[in-house]
Amino acid sequence: MKKLWLLIIACVLLLIVSSAGCSEKNEPVETSNRPETNPSESKIKLEMMLNGWSNVPTDADDPWKKWVEDQFQIDMTLNAMSIGDLESKLLVRFASNEPPDLIFTWDRNLITQLHNQGFVLDDWAPYLSKLPNVTSTWNDQMRVFATKDGNIIGLPKMPDAFTWTLMLRKDWLNALQLDPPSTDSELLEVLRKFTYDDPDGNGKDDTWGISSAGAGSDIGEISVLESMYGQSGFHIGPDGTVQHGIVNGTHLQFLTFMRTIVEEKLIDPDWYTQGWEQRKPKLFGGQIGMVHYPGVIVQEAEKATGATGRTVEWWDAIPIPTGSELGGKRPPSPIAGGMLTVSAQAASDPVKMERILTFIDSTVYPTAGYWALRWGVGVNGQTVSNLPNGAKFIGMKNDPYRKEMIGAHDWGAWVATSQDRVLEGQTDSPGAADDKQLEIDGKVILMESYPNYHELLNLDPQVLSELRHLTRAFDIQYILGKDSDYEAFKQEWLLAGGQKLLEEATLQLQEMNLLH
User: Which CATH class is domain 163-332+421-516?
Assistant: First the structure.
């Protein structure tokens, strides 16, 4: 029965996510040739600043840095950092006239902001003929996402297959004889029992119901719980008008829920200050009962615990619980997985720009350069196995460099897409953890999400940035019980540009014939 279920899931994934090809050999799929290295070409220096996963530096022995140098005659410096840090550090660098050459961010508004200030390339359109691999991954929505006032302001990255939702400790549910929560009140009860009823049976008060990784700048991925009450951000409401969660009350309901779980100490006490990687010892040490994550959580738990198989059945995916009649769906699936651009200064250098174009187009999915940069094929001794169901397998067991230098993963952060269908296993061949991830991801893909309106809009990035900072500051104060005047905050948000953006969003969605 399990094999039949896995076959069904594999078929669903195969229909939803395009395969990168099949081969009987244990080797990467060569969809384009790597560029010829011209020994006579002079080496150039490039710096990329980006949103990474690990956001820590590597060392002088970094094989990815050497690969980029050998393949492209580029001495590349990679500076990866969190979303909040990237924005502030980029603005400082541009203000001091020391910009990086390449910029990748998950936040399109940051690219728009830099573009409006003339800091980055004005229009990518004249260069697209030299980026055939890049543009072949685009669809119509991605072009809209990248276009402002007729100019293509950046290169959108392929989105991941949308496999994010709430993951919870299924073994804890079973131990406490609980059902998966389907409402916000049921979720609250589960979090209480996960925190105080010794779900792991070790006799210690060392578990928490839920966690987040705010990195000291925002509330982190736990913001997904706003979807219990309705769609957040700018969207079209049930009455056909443009709405925003801060104005229609959805955000207040979420903050009230957050205040409750903080007051009752149902959440990991470091939830606001810790980063993504910093949170992992507690998460995979068995102290957290619920987290927002994709199915790769199964593989990461196994990696962190010695790949013994002990954690394979820990996690299961659940839909977003319902807190109102409009809630209970996942946030919108992303149109793109981020955006890449170059500084205006780098674009003004023809030699540098030509090298950048070659580098970018030679490393996008599904080129051989992608497999090298993302997974280490031809760089760090990695091999790709093609599975019968169209997925692929890469065993990370014998990857000593990335095990010690986790920052090396960030080389792939700006090209990565789960549409490569790779299962990143911790063993030499696929096993129980890979089957479990495939099962969970297939289950999650079928969960309902809200439609994505926000990423179709071109709203004033400076106003968006100011509203984001205003919201982040109020959110933590409200959650900690230091400010309870939500109405005053809402009015401040509207006066600071929220009302203006609501009007702009209405006009833009009318022009797209999405409002009737």
Answer: alpha beta
